[in-house]
Amino acid sequence: MNLEQIRSKVDELIKAQWGKVEPSLASRPDGQPIDPSSPDYKFWEYRISPAFPAAWPPDGKGLVYYYAYAAARNPSVLMDGEWLGPLWARVKVDATSRAVPQLEILTREIKEVGTIGVRPLTKEEIDIYNAADSVTAELYDTLQRADLRRLNAPPIRQYYCAWGRDTGMGRAIRTYHPEFFKWLGCKGL
Description:
Layout: H1 3-25, E1 43-48, E2 52-53, E3 63-74, E4 78-94, E5 102-105, E6 114-117, H2 123-130, H3 132-145, H4 153-167, H5 170-174, H6 178-184
Antiparallel strand pairs: 1-3, 2-3, 3-4, 4-5, 4-6
């Protein structure tokens, strides 16, 4: 599978589980539905992280994890940010395409765990995010080789540190990949 096919399969697996989780997010604790016109209503959706290496330094197996988390908006209540839910699932992917991606549910309890502000990105930040495909391709290649000598580290560090900071999910994912985050050297994560 190429990178686009991998992402599509990851999205397909997570979307199927989200359909089982999402209805509970539109209910109050007593089980009654929340009216979408109510200021208490939050428009929840799932988000998917970039690929994170299963082992760091790379062990040559080419395994990565994509994480799913929930985020919610309600512009009438919170205009310059969104609510965050927990990491609720992850998908293990063999970057060598030798195995079918596997979904693991981390929690079925999706609840608000914090907020993250949003702001316009700078030109430099846009450039960092536009490099996502090349960063992922290089990471996949490195994970299969288990050789860091040819790795172009600065774009990978910039991308992952920016993503972890800007989404508010870096600290949560760091608990699963401490050695990778240590290598990244992200300030504040």
